[in-house]
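Lecture notes, part 5. Sequence design as translation. It can be helpful to think of inverse folding as translation between two languages: the language of shapes and the language of residues. The source text, in structure tokens, appears below.
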């Protein structure tokens, strides 16, 4: 490893894909420079570092860029081995990756439909999201975190996406998609997660965040 590490993160203050990377860096105690981006006016640095997707987050380690948050998390875990976030056991690793994909693909897509198709089938979208959430919630039974006794890969992925993003959107819309009575394990996990210092440090100001998510919803309605 190079003597003087140069670690940069190009992201947005309210971006779940960026929050998961930041939490991982904080858990591992890796210092980094945070570079806020403007997607309406993409910086030459962003276009240079992510010419394929032109999206954030981009992680830059000693000048070498990596895009895609799940790929970034794996790179960070392999590069800074303190506080491992992926499970050691190959089967458990595969399952953590499987459920992370489930969150980013299935839950995000169903969860956003509740907004996008507000007038045309919001109830059906909420129902679909709840069915998916029930499947995910089973992974939490008997555990403090998806990762077991401490926060791991799936906690970062689900945490950044569900409580730290989708729930802000739903709160702004005034709908409780994951009510406590129906999802006790999820709420127990969320409370545990929100007590973790590295997570707390990444929580955007609540009102500003909800407002931002509502603007996002308006654009995608
Ligand atoms: N699969 C990507 C998703 C990243 C993503 O969706 N980034 C959006 C932020 S909302 C973006 O940069 N969009 C700008 C664009 O597509 O022009 C990841 O996990 O990092």
């Amino acid at each position: 490893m190079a003597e003087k590490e140069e670690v940069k993160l190009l992201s947005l203050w309210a971006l779940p894909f960026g929050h998961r990377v930041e939490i991982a860096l904080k858990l591992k105690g890796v210092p980094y420079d945070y570079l806020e981006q403007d997607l309406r006016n993409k910086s030459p640095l962003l276009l240079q570092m992510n010419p394929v997707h032109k999206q954030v987050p981009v992680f830059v380690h000693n000048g070498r860029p990596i895009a895609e948050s799940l790929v970034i998390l794996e790179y960070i875990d392999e590069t800074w081995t303190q506080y491992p976030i992926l499970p050691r056991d190959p089967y458990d690793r595969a399952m953590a990756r499987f459920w992370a994909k489930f969150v980013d693909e299935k839950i995000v897509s169903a969860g956003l439909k509740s907004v996008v198709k507000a007038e045309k089938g919001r109830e059906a979208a909420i129902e679909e999201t709840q069915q998916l959430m029930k499947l995910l919630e089973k992974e939490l039974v008997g555990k403090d975190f998806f990762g077991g006794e401490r926060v791991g890969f799936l906690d970062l992925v689900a945490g950044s996406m569900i409580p730290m993003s989708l729930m802000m959107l739903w709160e702004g819309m005034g709908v409780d998609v994951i009510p406590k009575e129906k999802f006790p394990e999820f709420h127990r996990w969320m409370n545990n997660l929100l007590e973790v210092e590295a997570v707390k440090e990444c929580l955007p100001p609540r009102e500003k965040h909800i407002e931002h998510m509502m603007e996002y919803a308006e654009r995608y309605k």
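The translated text above is only one of many valid answers, since several sequences can fold into similar shapes. The chain has two domains: 7-79, 90-220.
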